[in-house]
Design a protein that fits this description.
Number of helices: 8
Strand order of the largest sheet: 1-7-6-2-5-3-4
CATH topology: Glycerol-3-phosphate (1)-acyltransferase
Helix content: 40-55%
Low-confidence stretches: none
Shape: globular
Radius of gyration: 17 Å
Mean pLDDT: 92
CATH superfamily: Glycerol-3-phosphate (1)-acyltransferase
CATH architecture: 3-Layer(aba) Sandwich
Number of domains: 1
CATH class: Alpha Beta
């Protein structure tokens, strides 16, 4: 119980403490690449996310980070639990944003950092707005920022992967950035399997070989989805 209380104190305390940093890093005018700028902006969120995971006592093993290409990529991951987001932010070296459900905007302080990290909010209840969010995500990738998408659309809360929703893969087929499949195994044990707060768990994150899309050909989103899903399954 004390661990859970301290976790929430740190969760909001660090966010409040770090808010003044947002404007400072966004105003940096030193010439640099998009990824170099993103790396600076993501320093605080990465520290915050990694600490949140460590406070649960969990052990995170990441395999295959060397496979991640330079430049913008679309990470496509399975989604087991609420800790998937801080695990990917804190333990993957590349700075990244997320395609996130719009309900997250209701959590105090978090939206300001998410906007700075180039996250894209999607309203799944409004088809027109959802389509526009996908278009915004495509532009974000084209500008050089990396994003993560969970095509299952919801947490599986276990080792069985849910069905992929193919619409989000337009992010890849329209932007033509490399796709990096990711398998997260065991994250649901931290929170979803715990009866009281959090519990320590061993989590393995597997980064698979990137999929490079042909720049001059139309890509079949359904076939791409099947290919990505098979790669992710190999990581269990």
């Amino acid at each position: 119980m004390l661990r859970t209380i301290w976790w929430f104190v740190y969760f909001f305390g660090y966010l409040i403490y770090s808010l003044p940093t947002i404007k400072k890093v966004q105003k940096i005018d030193t010439p640099m690449t998009v990824e170099e700028r993103d790396t600076i902006i993501h320093q605080k969120p990465k520290h915050w996310a990694k600490t949140l995971v460590k406070l649960t006592g969990s052990n995170i093993e990441v395999v295959g980070q060397e496979k991640i290409p330079t430049g913008p990529v679309l990470f496509v991951s399975n989604h087991q639990g609420n800790f998937d987001v801080p695990i990917l932010i804190g333990f993957l070296k590349k700075p990244l944003g997320f395609i996130s459900k719009i309900e997250v905007k209701k959590i105090p302080f978090i939206p300001r950092w998410m906007e700075a990290m180039n996250c894209v909010f999607i309203d799944r209840k409004d088809r027109r707005k959802a389509v526009q969010s996908i278009k915004d995500g495509i532009e974000t990738l084209k500008k050089g920022h990396s994003l993560v998408i969970f095509p299952e659309g919801t947490r599986s809360k276990g080792d069985v992967m849910g069905e992929f929703k193919k619409g989000g893969l337009r992010l890849a087929t329209d932007s033509k950035v490399p796709v990096v499949p990711i398998t997260i195994s065991g994250s649901y044990r931290i929170m979803e399997e715990s009866k009281f707060g959090f519990q320590a768990a061993k989590v393995k994150v597997t980064v698979h070989d990137p999929i490079f899309l042909p720049l001059d050909e139309k890509v079949d989103g359904n076939q791409l989805g099947i290919q990505i899903q098979e790669k992710i399954k190999q990581g269990f």
